[in-house]
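Predict the 3D structure for this chain.
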Amino acid sequence: MQRFALDGDNLSLDAVRRFLAPAPPHLSLKKTAEKRVRRAAGFVRELTKGSATVYGVNTGFGRLANVRIPQNKLARLQTRLIVSHAAGVGRALPFEEARLAVAVRAATLARGHSGVQLPTLRLLLELWNRDVTPFVPSRGSVCASGDLAPLAHIALTLLGKGDAFSGRRKMAAKTALKRAGLAPITLEPKEGLALINGTSVATAILARTLVHAQDLVRLADAAAAMSLEALQGTDTPYDPRVHALRPHPGQAATARNLKKLLKGSRILPSHKESDHKVQDPYSLRCVPQVHGASRDGLRFTKEIIERELNAVTDNPLLFPDDGDVLSAGNFHGQHVALAADTAAMAIAELGSISERRIEQMVNPDLSSLPAFLATDPGLDSGFMMAQTTAAALVSENKTLAHPASIDSIPTSANQEDHVSMGMWAARKCRNILENARAVLAIELLCAAQALDWQQLRPGRSVGRVRNALREQVPKMKKDRYLARDIELTAAMIADGSLLKAAGALESF
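Done. Predicted structure below.
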């Protein structure tokens, strides 16, 4: 079994990809992290013995921060915080996101500025290692004092309260712990607040989406190259000299990918001297500019999220070496929200331009291909409704791409008077990616169908993608159940098999 030792400063998208793999690593703590956690927990114990009022240790929360809690009720305070804040609603987060949120929260606590006890952090890691997944409702966070409600549902599992999944089976959390050979804990002062104050859930959702976006943006280049071949377009706009004059890194990377995908094509030189396509439509000619802009937007989001994965985002923050407790605002999710909104627009555009390439292939007024790529147009409708589905998904993405980060509704009696809506920003970014994946699946199906009529060989990489697709989805010789074809192709995008066929391509 692979192992990964958290130290609070070693998470990246590459690590997240490992965590999302079918056989994820066993998680543990580095010795240096254990030492920091013990030091901070000891500092909290010292604070409880003193007379000073310390927010989150011996006070109420939010607007109730001015209420001093007696010494004999401090443990009860933390438990009540968890049960009262576990107020989420809606369907559970996908297993992958809930599990990843557990790992991200553990990494945050491993920095040693939060004050949890070492056994609490170890139990959190054992949820991951023993396949116990908290039931985390997907709605109810404004990501201001962090993801309070969803993180409280995760913390409930540590207390043996609420619901959880053992494997994929839902049951009482207490039963799930017992099946895994684990026992609930009793929270010490500050622990409840440390467990739920922070951006770990929104960060986990966005990190998972970005891992899939790394693959999707490369697959979008492959789909564009296949469509270019099918439509007998020109690769002149991908000349590196063009992109050296406008040196956006994503634009240049896209152009390099396209040239690599088209290498070895017999189709391109066959019409090189023809004047039938002096200039291709923008959905072909401007692929480097559009996909490239998405790449650069996603690169920005990656930089933000990799910092957030290793950040301490709760409050108050403990500095044991200095003897200080600082109440501040690291829990505010604006960075995550803005990054998610940027990624949402970037991914939506991949779907938007893909739909235009689909239209180029199915519309007989725009190409020499058969109407709707049907073998017997009229009797067969071909890919007519597939383009309609793509249009519907692109329109849905336009609505979803409206930024969540510009909204704010005050909460906690106006104590939290500006909130980020980062959780919703991350969730809808994930929804946009799923829609864009389906649109690209439709483009690949159309391009493969169109290439099947070509007598000449396409680029070697384009040919490999077409052949990989054809292993699962045969050419449509007459109308058939298209939803299954789209689903199969989208699954091949998601599992990486089509991307593997394309070969090594640059991401962001």
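The chain has a mean pLDDT of 95.
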